[in-house]
What does this fold into?
Amino acid sequence: MNTLISDNFKVILLLVASLFLFSCTEKEYVYEIAPQDILPVNSEKDKDKTKIQYISILYTNLFRQAMSPNDMLDALKAIESVGDKQIAFDILVSKYMNTGEVVVPSNEEMRTNPEKFVRDLYKRFFVRQPTAAELTWMKNYIQSRPDALPEHFYFAFATSNEHFHY
Amino acid sequence: MDRRKFIKKSALVTGGVIGMPYILPSGLLNAQTTPPMTEHVVFVLFAGGVRQQESVLQRYLAGSQNEDIEGNIMYNLLDGQPPEDKIAYGRDDTQNNIIGAHPIDSILQNSLESQGTLFPEVRFARGGAGHFNGLSTGVSGNYYVTQGLRNRPESPTIFEYLRRHAGFKATDCWFVGVGIGGSRPLLNFSDHPDYGRRYGGNFLAPLTTFGEPGQKHFMDFKNYHPESDWETIREIRTFLNNNFAADGLEIPHLYNSVDEENKIREFIRYMFEKVKQDQVILPPVNDNRDLKTIGYAVEVLKYFKPKLLVVDLTDIDVCHSDFTAYLKNLHRADHGVGFLWREIQRIPEMQDNTIMLVMPEHGRDMDPNPIQDLNDWYAYDHSAGNENTRRIFSLMVGAGIDTGLRIGSSENPVGDASDITPTIADIFGIKNQVKSAGLLDPNARSLFDRI
It folds into this structure.
C-alpha cells in the first residue's frame, strides 16, 4: 500500500515537474534599443555657407532670379569691407528691400492663410518644413502682431543663423 | 560698536571692495587694472614697407639711387630740412609736366618727433618681412614666421585683449583698413580659442564700403524704424536663432550690442550722405588711397570716439616697381599722419586726451631690384632675410608722452615691432593681464619700459 502511494506520488511529481519543464516552450525575446539622441530638424546644417554662397542664395530667395557674376563680386567686396557680418548682411538685405523688386507676398495673403505663408517661408529659406512648434509660434505671432509685415519675416529669415548654414 | 572699531571695520570693508576683482560688462571676471594713462589711442600702421634710409635717416636719394641728395620728406613726423634738389615727391606740376615738383606744405607747426618720443631704430626681429607678418605683429605683439596669407593671427589682437580684460565695447575698438586685400579684413580678431570673435574689434575698409561696391549694394538701404520695424525683425530672428542653437553656428558677428549695431548702421547711412554731398573730411592733398582712408578714419573718430583706432596705410608698397611713386606716397603718408593728429586735436573729447603711435610694419631691402622708373631710379622689394627689412622706427605722441625724446640709435637699436600691443595695453592699464596671458613675443615690451 505504501509502495503504491509512493509510486503514484512519484508519477504525479514527475508529471508536475514535466509541466514546469516543457509547458512554457515560447521563447522570451529581449528587445535592445540603442540609445538615440533626438536632434532638432535643422541639426544637420552644421557648415557655414561661404559668403559668396550666402549672397547668391539670398539674392535668389529674395528676387527669384540669379545674380550676375559682377554684382555678386561687388556684393562680396561690400560684405568683406564691414567686420560685423550680421550688420553687413542686415544692410545688404535692407538695400535689397528698398529696391521694390523683392518678391514678397502681400500682408493680406499672409493674414488670410498664415500657415501657407509660414510653410512657404521655411521652404524657401530653410529648405524644410516647420516643426509643429515653429508653425504654432509663427501663426500666433502673425495673429497677435497686426503691425508685423511679410517683409519683416522675410528679413528675419534671410538674416538668421540657419539661413547662413547648410 | 565703538568709534574705533567702526572705523576699522569700515576701512576693511572699503579696502576689500576696492581690492576685489569685479565683473565686467562683458561678463568676465577682471583682474585689477591700473588707471589708464589716457582715454584714447590711435595707432597708425605706417605700412607698405618703409626704408630707414628715406625715413628717419633722411637720405632721400643718397641712400638709394647713388645721388648725393639728402633731406627729410616726412616733415610732419620728423625734424629735418627737406631736400633742395631733384624734388620728385610732391604734387605734380601739370603745366610743366614735372612729376612731384611741388612739396606739400607741412600741416603741423611742430613735428611729431618734437612733440613726442621717437625710437629711431627698432627691430622687426623675426620672420619674413611680409605684409601679413608685419601687420599681424603690429596688432598682436607676436610674430608669424610660418603662417600664410588669408589667415587670422594665431595670437590675440590688442582689440581682444582690451575687450576681454578692460571691458571695452566692440565700438570702442576699430581697425580702419586701406582695403580688403590680403589679410586686412582678418586683423580685427585672432583664431585663439580663449579670445577670438567674441572680443573682436570692428573693421571697416571705407574705400570699399563707400566706394563702388558699397554704393551698389549698401547705399540707400532701407531706413527701418528702430523701435517698430527692427524690434519685430529682431523678435522673429531671435526665435529662429534660438531654434538653431548649435554652438558657434552663427553669422560671424562681433557681439556689438543692439545699440551699437544701430549706431554702426546709422554711421554708414550718414557717411553715404556725406559721400553724395562730397563732404567727407579729407586731408588737403588726398590723391591716393592712404590719404582717403585717413579721412574716413577721422570720420570714425568723430562719430564713435573709440578708445582704440588702428589705421593702416599701404601705398608706399609701390616701391616694388616705382621708386618715385614710393617717395611721393611716403611724403603723403606723412601728410596724412600730420592731418590725422591735427584732426584729433579738433575733436573735443579726444583733444589732449589721446596718444598716437606710428610704426611701419617692416622695412625694405638694402639693395634695389632691376626695375627703373621714369627718373631711372631703381625700385626696392622687401625680401626675406634682408637685414635692412628689419629696420623700422616707432613714434609716440600725446597726453603724458615725453616730448623731444629720442631713444636708441643705429648703433644702439631700442625697441621691437612687437612692442605696440603691450604699449597700448600699458596705456589702458592692462599690461600685466596681457603679459600673464603669455601670448606675446618674448621680446615684446611696453615702449614705456624701454625709456
Q: What stands out?
A: DSSP finds twelve helices and twelve strands in chain B. Chain B has one domain: 36-210+280-450. Chain B touches chain A through 51 residues (CB under 8 Å). Residues 323-344 of chain B form the longest helix (22 residues).
